[in-house]
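Hi R.,

Here's the chain you asked about this morning:
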Amino acid sequence: MNPDAPKMTRAWLMVGLLWVVALLNYLDRVMITTMRGSLTEAIPMTDAQFGLLTSVFAWVYGLLSPFAGFMADRFSRSRVILGSLFVWSLLTWLTGHAKTFEQLLAVRALMGISEAAYIPAALALISDYHRGNTRSLATGIHMTGIGVGAGLGGLGGWLAERHGWSYAFTVFGLVGVGYAVVLMLALRDAPAAPKKNSAADSAAPAPVLGEALASLFRNSSFWLMLVYWGLLGLTGWAVMGWMPTFFAERFALTQGVAGLSATGYLQAAMLLGVVIGGVWADRWSRTNQRARILVPAIGLCISAPGLLLLSQTSVLPLAIVGLMIHGLARSFTDANMMPALCLVSDPRYRATGYGVLNLCSCLIGGSAAYFGGALRDAHVNLSVLFLLAALNMLVCAAVMFCVKPAKADADGPLAPA
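And here is the predicted structure, written out as tokens:
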């Protein structure tokens, strides 16, 4: 019997447990966007106020991400995950009991704080368990939970039509609290990696936020990844915010059909892409240390022509093909961003590093939604936005190709700069 088999079984069990948390993470945050009619009928608000419910979440989420990531480096990753899930699930339940717009806004801001702690801690924990050639696939499988959660966000609107806007928040809030209790019995931090110099390592001080940030920003490759993730956020937010409108206007589709076309095909392609990108990077990494860096860059070189096709065609099936090419190849990044970060950063600060990347993506990428609106106000066709997004992806690929690993192995000591 393979002596490592029990360890790998445990490692994959952690991925499975966290997959459900990832699903709830995105389901709870996005379902409010699918029930606008029911919500505004019960709690009167302007369109700007309704949009602010999502914006305040994103702003708080981005600003708190570096600090939330540091918590996962400083304390137990599994405890941070448990606390995050319990608190945001409780806040989801409380959302269903809000009576005024101000109460809704306050709860959404608090949800941004609690949900910010999850992704950096979860991806760092998965990397702790998967130190060899399963790291990218494990990360990719976990990210499919996010895709499924985002896709199931429509359940909120469906349940709101039948049971009122608060019903979905009450149900999924209680589901999350219950699942947090289950995780208390099963989720554990990974065993410490074997150390070459146990005496020195045991004497190492606990991570300090200032030292973590200094370590990250001294690394030129981390700066490149920061630029990459921030610019890539521009494309992601543009596609998410304006693709349904583009489909409706370009192909004369109803709002419902355009929304399903713009999100359904994209999510299906991305679910497949994170698995392909994970398997490819894991296998290639056996012979090429830069595989987890190169696969995302190559993916964007494939993805950009898909967006270019989408922006220029007037044939709906071709537009869907372009959208799916974009989604499949773009998602190679989702499977490999944390594994690539593990190659360029100190293992003690990887969750902090991912939090900083999230901050940059939210602050820079969020401007794409405004930019798309400005183009529409200037009577510029949205195809121009997606053409610029395709060019931006090629710039991102060029940046990623310049990233160099700073380590001899996935979890070894930092090599000299």
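One quick note: The two ends are 41 Å apart (CA to CA).

Cheers,
M.
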